[in-house]
Amino acid sequence: MAPAAIARHTAKTVCVMDSSSRLGAALVDRLLHRGYTVHAAAFARGDATKAAWSENKRVRVFRADPLDYNSIAEAIRGCSGLFYTFDDESSYDEFMVETELRAAHNVLEACAQADTIERVVFTSSVTALIWNEKLKVTEDVDERDWSDPNFCRKFKLWHALAKTLSEKTAWALAMDRGVDMVAVNAGLILAGPELSSANPYLKGAPEMYEDGVLVTVKLKFLVDAHICVFENPDAYGRYLCFNHTICHPKDAINLAQMLSPGPSPPPSDGLGVIQGRIHSKKLNKLLLEYRDGLQVAE
After folding, report:
1. CB 261: neighbour CB atoms within 10 A?
2. pLDDT digit string (tens) for 18-28?
3. What b/e readout covers 14-45, taking b as 16+ CB neighbours within 10 angstroms?
4. Domain NAD(P)-binding spans what residues (predicted)?
5. What's 236's DSSP letter?
6. Is-contact 22 48, C-beta < 8 A?
């Protein structure tokens, strides 16, 4: 995509919510480098005022509560776009599922009521696609797939259930209210103190590996993907976002060492080489066409 297409966006004001998450903070930083004015809306559990960019003149810091519609509406007021991520990785249970679902409803309703919002980039997860009976079938996974809520409840896959129901809620509202929304379904993010074996994304990791759908993504790649789908007018629907599939025993061992550092590597007994069954062709094509433009103003 030609740089001229990007120039239409760089003078605009956008909101990043939750800006205190690792992805949110990285998005604020990159957007500022690209010339945007940013409303950095931090949820109650974070403190955006401690970020390096908090004193930037093109940043307005907001305290937002995902369950408080008015605080969301205030944060997005005057913005042409919203980057929304709900990134609580401390724990997931049935209560968190309901919280994330309600938050998604509030955010999309606020965007529908805002006159200035042109596009919403909704961060979801690969876990919203992979958990269903198809996992044991030979078919590959792509953006058309959804995790089965009943399957998730049966095996207490609360992270997957939260991401599935919140994204479906967002899509239902977006389509009903005419909100231009794009979803980025991210793999396990390889960044931040939350990267540990206790990360709720990893519930069922052995099964993910066996079925060729255990994927990871570097933070910079994920940020690029978000900016690309926001700025490219041709972006639509859902985009699987990852840049590595864990398919080989040595890859699984390397990931295990990253999650639980120790003096000796964990055993790889019983692990075989797996054929990857998940693809991000849709995003890769978009990035290939747009990558040169992402370097503008950086």
Report:
1. 8
2. 998 999 999 99
3. bbbbbbbbbbbbbbbbbbbebbbbbbbbbbee
4. 21-129
5. -
6. no
Q: List, in order, residues 6 or more apart from 282 with CB less than 8 Å away.
A: 142, 143, 239, 240
267 residue type, one letter: P
3-state secondary structure of 51: coil
Strand 13-17 with 37-43, pairing? parallel
Residues 6 or more apart whose Cβ sits within 8 Å of residue 90: 194
Taking the C-alpha atoms of residue 182 and residue 240, their distance in angstroms, rounded to an integer, is: 11
User: What are the φ/ψ torsions at residue 41 (nearest 5 degrees)?
Assistant: -100, 110
Rounded to an integer, what distance in angstroms lies between the CA atom of residue 206 and that of residue 212? 10
Segment 142-194, tens digit of pLDDT = 999 999 999 999 999 999 999 999 999 999 999 999 999 999 999 999 886 66
Domain that holds residue 129: 3-294
Calculate the average pLDDT of the chain. Answer: 87
In the Cβ-directed half-sphere of 44, how many Cα atoms lie within 13 Å? 5
Number of domains in the chain: 1
E strand intervals along 88-132: 119-125
Q: Which CATH number is 204's domain given?
A: 3.40.50.720
Amino acid at 126: V
Q: Mind telling me the catalytic residues? A: 163
